Amino acid sequence: MKKLLLAGLAAAALATACNQAKPAESGAVAGATLADPKALAGLFDAFWEKQSRLDPLSATAQGDNRFNDQLPNDGTRAYRDTLRTFYQTYLDRLERFDRAKLSANDQLSYDVFRYQMQQNLAGLKLNTWMMPFNQFYALPLTMGQMGSGEGIQPFKTVKDYDNWLGRTKGFAVWADTAIANFRAGIKAGVVLPKTLVVKMLPQMHDLVVADPAKSLFYAPINKFPKNFPAADKARLAAAYQKAIGTELNPAFKKLGDFLQTEYLSKARATSGLGALPGGPAMYTYLVANSTTTDQTPTEIYQLGLAEVARIRAEMERVKASVGFKGDLPAFFEHLKTDKRFTPYTKPAQVLAAFETIHQRMAPNLKRMFNKVPKTPFEIRQTEAFRAASASAEYNQGSADGTRPGIFYVPILDATKFNTTSGMESLFLHEAIPGHHYQISLQQENTALPKFRRFGSQNAYVEGWALYCESLGKELGLYTDPYQYMGALGDEQLRAVRLVVDTGLHSRSLSRAQAIDYMLANLSMSRPDATSAIERYMAIPGQALGYKVGALKIRELRTRYEKQLGSKFSLSAFHDAILQDGSMPLAVLEKKMDAWAAGVK
What we know:
Layout: H1 14-17, H2 37-54, H3 56-61, H4 77-94, H5 104-123, H6 139-147, H7 158-169, H8 171-188, H9 194-205, H10 230-263, H11 279-291, H12 297-321, H13 328-337, H14 347-368, E1 377-381, H15 384-387, E2 393-395, E3 405-409, H16 423-430, H17 435-444, H18 450-453, H19 458-469, H20 481-506, H21 511-521, H22 526-538, H23 545-564, H24 570-579, H25 585-599
Parallel strand pairs: 1-3
Antiparallel strand pairs: 2-3
């Protein structure tokens, strides 16, 4: 899941952000301890106001449109210094409160906030800024999504259209800083793998179009709302052509040319962070940040091996149940090549098949969830400009419901879209009840402070979505053994990730070895395996949160089923897991133990 494709935190008007009123400080006397819930709420409100100004792209994603014209230069040392002061200041203010005297919900907020500030500060000590973007997480790609009119940037009013023009003005400066940071990385030996840089080149070059009217960024002009005055339409059309020709095209060309003529030759042949100066420390941090645990890469590697073996045994059982006589690799090949598993001719058919899955399980959802989101939901095909390097994903809706949650499906060729790829499990994970339920319910919960309403702990968010895949049979899915095999393949993918991610970044596993390991344990093509491995190379540690989080949620469910017996309610369990939003796994476990004690 990619809620946003950001190269890093984006910031607005740093001086303004650092000079906001400080409502949380009223009554916060140095050396004193506090227990006033209003003072704590004030601290969180003040933090969020500053955070929104520092990170206006995330504010836009959350439906806060006050800063939609801003694209600050978040790659500078001054920006990182501002963040460091910001996080440390608010951590210090938090620790003036007496946690023991706070309510249960405020204690949750205290624990989550403290964890986040400590993680943010630890991350700022690393040299990841020397690799400002890659083929997977990149502000240039986010610009394409937003500027197309199909992403988080609204294009409903004349002001909306003018806001985007303001945002484009900052991109050229951002691009110059990114190039400077890449060059600093070259000098320090902190560079991206060459195989990733090769994928970045067409992404940059394809967004440069000689005729501005044919640019992706001109699309909003072709979709003017009907109520726009003619004078505004003419003015905006001219302004957009100028912005594309004089700001966006030159910036994307400069990035592409730099990567091709200067950076590519300096990129590294190795695959993992372990090969970089300071790389092991980077990976240790990223593992902890992704899993919200203190598990070591070695422990996670061993867990992965055990899970791969367990799931592989279940795959063997399914293979035997359908009467296939060959070995498991032969069965994988059969699933990839048998024409009955590629029945589609048009993208619309693929999208309709996902909606059919939704409707099939809808009656059972009512038994498993008492609380469901109000945020609208849509299924869309991934835009062509990024489909080649994209995975299926969920993009969050806005908290006010004006922008739906969107399940994006990349369909390069509908005739090659394989039904055994795990369509049912994919929908459960990315859409309903996975990311759409969790993220929407969290955003809709106005009782939470905003840093929790819009926060995201990877192991919780992705762990919940993967746990939802395990609900398929209970929801009336996985009745077809081939769809169940696809679900096992999806689960196996997350287990394999534990092995290859830790292997790449802490055990000197090469890209080629990692690809071969995936192909030996999964039914996937070599291009798909290559794309997956390059994703783990680009965003180390992120893929670990899925399995670690899902195993924890399943562990908690099993524990309470045994403890509570007939008093256990699955719908109540699910509601309790989701009601307080994303949090570190240790905080979640403590909260859920208290919930179970209350039920008992």
